[in-house]
Amino acid sequence: MKPSKITNVYQEKNKVFTENPKACKGIKVYNEKIIKLKNKEYRAWNPYRSKLGAAILKGLTFDIKPDTNILYLGAATGTTVSHFSDIINKGLVYAVESSPVSIKGLLNICEKRTNIIPILADANHPDRYSCMISSVDFIYQDISQRNQAEIFIENIKRYMEKNSYGILMVKARSIDVSLKPKKAYEKVAKELEKNNLKIKKMIDLAPYEKDHAAILVSI
Length: 219
Description:
There is one protein chain. By secondary structure, the chain is α/β, with parallel strands linked by helices. It has helices spanning 51-57, 79-87, 100-110, 148-159, 172-175, 181-194, and strands spanning 2-3, 9-12, 15-20, 34-37, 40-44, 70-73, 93-97, 116-120, 136-141, 160-171, 198-204, 212-218.
């Protein structure tokens, strides 16, 4: 098990892992594999269950520190959120999810992972959770809506500090079903650039996720 280029992310051959906190010893989030080494537990990051896991396996790296505060938009039941929780063990993950059904699963994870703040809200309206968040260092978004770029931009304007990073997971078919995936990704990238976001990296997530790409931006 070796440290990767990303803080608190580990790699072994073609697999990536994060370290399970002591409070979660033996606890799986989505039936992932756990490896025990020298009194530590490492959770396998399944690229077929997490788009960020897929992006990392395909070469995505980004600057993140243990005390980073993250705004996660589209948290769902918490698969990727849980790995972020492992990475930023001295920071907070503000996990926004609009589905009452999905957030029930997220709440179960929060019982042990106290650095996750679950927020039941619509990311289309960033002002609605401003009472809980002042600013963040990193924004991650995985929302399958036609206006996903607009949601990402508005939340960045509202909450992100300068010299920070964000990752947008783009679902091509949600943008325009008539466009080829690559053209849909490029369309989103242009919209981000028009709003003064710098594209650092764009990675197609195939074969782990069809018609999806990860776009890393900085401001």
